[in-house]
Amino acid sequence: MSEAHRQTPRRHSRLRIRVFKACETLARVCGGRALYRALNLRPGRFAVRHERLAVGADSPLVGLRMVQLSDIHAGPFLGTGDLVHVVAAANALAPDLCLFTGDLISRTPDEGLLVLDDLASLNPRLGTFAVFGNHDYRHREERRLAAAFAERGIRFLLNESVRPLGEDSPLVLLGVEDLEEAKSLDLTAARAGLRPGDLELVLSHNPGGAVALLSPATRLVLSGHTHGNQIDLPFLRTLGPHHPGERVELRPASETESAATLIVNRGLGVVGVPLRLFARPELVLVELVP
Ligand SMILES: [Fe+2]
Ligand SMILES: [Fe+2]
Q1: Residue 8 located in a structural domain
Q2: pLDDT at res. 235
Q3: Which ligand is nearest the CA of 241, by number?
Q4: CA of 93 to the centre of ligand 2 (A)
Q5: At residue 51, does pLDDT exceed 90?
Q6: With 27 labelled, which of 34, 69, 163, 254 sits at a CA distance of 20 to 30 A?
């Protein structure tokens, strides 16, 4: 596969990083984590978005329910036990699959372990799968994190495909490493097992390069990364990654290719300041319908 879809990593000035860290430290010592949990992670404070995806009346995948979580950013404002209500809400949706689309940590790999117990409490019928986001490559210890999560039944997909419903099922789940930070993206190899009639679902943290990730079999791309702008005010929108929508039709159906839809999750955590404005955290339930 061409690597033309790769995105240049965002590199901020030292001054901006220092200001960012100072704000973060100040917010943390002033009780930012408790504030964020109270305002965003208690029942009724986060949204549950229900998305339906048509797959054809005769598809064996009709009825499949997948819950997507994204951008937890464990660290100064989200730690052990803070996701208990989110996990309970996810389990109450009776998912077949739980899917995490990256940015597990804020700054250090060990922050990811803070939420391991919470995420291991997800209870989908067929398993929990995940990909890493750009933050997760800090210190380049993402493989260690993946191993720790694998021990608790959560599998990070590192440019690889699985058939979560079994080898006879047409559902293929492809996990793509982050488009800014990963070292290799050999998706041709990852797709070597695709068969005619397969329906491919792609997990890619960054929605920006989604069009370049499509194969003829791709029906759905799940992403995060944008936080819905986190503080969604016009004069602040240039500070973070922006994307034109939460659900975008990437490609109409043709004789040789299926229609492809991109769903961008606003995420659960925050970076920089423990605030969200006009960008509620969310779980996304994706249901495959006739
Ligand atoms: Fe993020
Ligand atoms: Fe991100």
Answers
A1: no
A2: 78
A3: 2
A4: 26
A5: yes
A6: 69
List the one residue out of 147, 101, 94 whose CA is nearest residue 123: 94
Mean pLDDT, residues 152-166 taken together: 97
Instruction: Please report whether residue 1 resides in a domain.
Output: no
User: Separation of 129 CA from ligand 1 center, angstroms?
Assistant: 18
Hey, how many other C-beta atoms are within 10 angstroms of the C-beta on 63?
12
Residues 6 or more apart whose Cβ sits within 8 Å of residue 110: none
Q: For residue 137, give the ligand nearest its CA.
A: 2
pLDDT value at residue 136: 96
Q: With beta carbons less than 8 A apart as the criterion, state whether 222 and 99 touch.
A: yes
CATH code for position 28: 3.60.21
CA of 7 from ligand 1 middle (Å) equals 16
Spatial separation of the C-alpha atoms in residues 217 and 200, rounded to whole Å = 5
**Position with higher pLDDT, 90 vs 241:** 90
- For the record, the structure tokens of 242 come out as 């922006």
Quote the number of domains for the chain: 1
Q: What average pLDDT does this structure show over 37-58?
A: 97
Question: With 80 as the cut, is the pLDDT of residue 187 above it?
Answer: yes
Per DSSP, what are the bridge partners of residue 37? none
Tens of pLDDT, residues 203-233 = 999 999 999 999 999 999 999 999 999 998 8
pLDDT > 90? residue 11: no
**How far is the C-alpha of 196 from the C-alpha of 147, rounded, in Å?**
33
- Specify if 5 maps to a domain: no
Angle at 8 between CA 17 and CA 228, to 5 degrees: 65
What per-residue confidence (pLDDT) applies to 1? 44
Range of the domain at 150: 14-289
Nearest one of 96, 126, 106, 58 to 271, comparing CA atoms: 106
